[in-house]
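User: I'm putting together a teaching handout on how sequence relates to shape, and I'd like one worked example. Could you take Magnesium transporter CorA from Rugosimonospora africana, show the sequence you're using, and then write out its predicted structure as tokens right after it?

Assistant: Happy to. First the sequence, then the structure tokens directly below it.
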Amino acid sequence: MAYTRLYRNGGLEAEDFPIEEVSEYIKDPTATVWFDLCTPSPEQLRTISEELGLHPLAVEDALHSHQRAKLDRYPTHLFITAYCAGLARDSGELTSYEMNAFVTSNALVTVRKDVAFDIGQVVARWDDNRDLARSGVSFLLHGLLDYVVDTHFEAVQALDSEIEDLEDRLFEDRPQDQRIQLLTFELRKSLVNLRRVVLPMREVINSVMRRDLQIVDETMTPYFQDIYDHVLRATEWTESLRDLITNVLETHLTLRGNRVNTIMKQVTSWAAIIAVPTAVTGFYGENVPYPGYGHVSGVISSIAIIVVLAAALFLIFKRRGWL
């Protein structure tokens, strides 16, 4: 399904009209047109390219997935690639959805690679800020980029919460080492993927705001500056999370090593205690006379020696914290 909208003189004049009518609307310099394509075919993009005069390289990038987040400048238009992001709470896996946009003087074309990219959220932002519609394409582009950057910020915040929960699990009485290790590596992978999505957006927003491009007018400049501020905060947050997840991994390995040392101390202590009765009974089991040999007093003395020595060792190891 294709979504379309026509703005004229700051007001929404029409929507959900056939894409074939776009070429007629864009001839009017007072009109601003937006239409959305989800997983379009090469033929559809070529048709749009001919109507809007899009560069073949930009169309080629729109057809191929896994492009780096970027802004390319062409003589008649701009081409933007960006990703919205989301973090799965249960698994810690990051999901991202690619979006391409062609920006002309009075038209915005969004090309989504996946239906999971919620274009409805973008439309809702436009409806909530209708008083800015007079800014034309600048207004439409702001709503799109604002939604994308907000998903980055939410993903970073969710990742931060997951790392904090992981830190709490490290110090549980009975930590699940395998689960912690798997979750740690999954969060590290998600953080790496998130940095690939977030960091290039700083360059994208900064380029959009350049005065020589004449995309952002004076009215929309503070709003794009706000987006840029969010991008900087998300970028700094991801950098701090990289150090934090590294500390979590190192702490986990250290705690495992400490627990192994504690277990070895306990095993060694109990082995020393068990060695006492073994040594005493072995001595009294020799086939030679000894004090109390053949009498009940010998059994009593051997038992007393075992109890006293074992208790003494237990108390010594207990005071040292080995048991």
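A couple of points you could highlight for students: Residues 257-319 form one domain. The helical segments are 22-25, 42-52, 56-63, 119-128, 137-170, 177-208, 221-284, 296-319.
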